[in-house]
Amino acid sequence: MPELPEVEVTRLSFADRIAGAVIDRVQMGKPLRWPLGCAPKALVGQQVLAVRRRGKYLLVDLSDGLLLVHLGMSGSVAFGDGLPALGKHDHFEMATSQGTLRLNDPRRFGAVVYASHEGAPAAQKLLGRLGVEPLTDAFNAASFHQALKLRQTAIKQVLLGGEAVVGVGNIYASEALFLAGIRPTTRANRISRPRAALLHGAIRQVLAQAVTKGGSTLRDFSNAQGESGYFQLEAMVYDRAGLPCRVCAAPVKTLKQGQRSTFYCANCQKP
Ligand code: ZN
Questions:
Q1: 1, 28, 57, 209: which has the highest count of C-beta atoms within 10 A?
Q2: Which letter does DSSP use for residue 244 in this model?
């Protein structure tokens, strides 16, 4: 599943190239998770002003409104000239004066949603409850600790919930908790200020590293199709159940939290 770093690298791969483009044509494929929310024709003639990111949403600012693009479980975005013919998993295509933007999404949990402005209900329904952005100055150790003190659920669940901090998905939650030495089942409100500070730093570290790595290894990302663009992560614990911990060599353990697999080292990560 695309997480925040993949979405940010996707953004970086086409934001500059599409800025200023005029939309010539919009074509929809099979239904995505949510409907577009306007007639595709209504977008024609509009100018693309910029592409921003909020959590795992790409925000494509238009001269009149914006598009919120979510990659769902399996989506990827391509932008360029001379893309191959539309395939059966291409469910949104927007031809512009500077290239064609296309969403490929085999499982169709992704979406492209139009909103008249960021405060409109169509946008707020998706963005309204998102927490602070982890890679901005607004995400600081003290306020993160305050947010954790308000929550009695397991820290892994709090991270995935996206209200204390946005965009820390399953892979990076497991990895950040390992780096911080915190057991994923620890109740958020039991985490001390120093440990919250460690976790705060670990979250920024794993996300920033992934963005950097993606940016340097995915030069051809604009032409990526399907899953080819996802990161080959050098994970410390994620998806390594039974393998030796890279720090202490104890076998990495796994458990289910909210139907998602969590990976951790019982030796390195304390409750
Ligand atoms: Zn270990």
A1: 57
A2: B
Burial 153-185 (b: 16+ CB within 10 A, else e): ebbbbbbbbbebbbbbbbbbbbbbbbbbebbbb
Is 209 in a helix, a strand, or coil?
helix
Out of 5, 8, 11, 56, the active site residue is: 56
The whole model's pTM is what?
A: 0.85
Q: Which fold has domain 4-127?
A: N-terminal domain of MutM-like DNA repair proteins (3.20.190)
**Residue 204 CA to ligand 1 centre (angstroms):** 21
Q: What is the CATH number of domain 141-264?
A: 1.10.8.50
Distance (Å, rounded) from C-alpha 257 to C-alpha 271?
15
**Phi/psi of residue 149, each to 5°?**
-65, -25
> Which residue among 2, 106, 134, 184 is the active-site one?
2
Give residue-wise pLDDT tens across range 43-86. Answer: 999 999 999 999 999 999 999 999 999 998 888 899 999 888 99
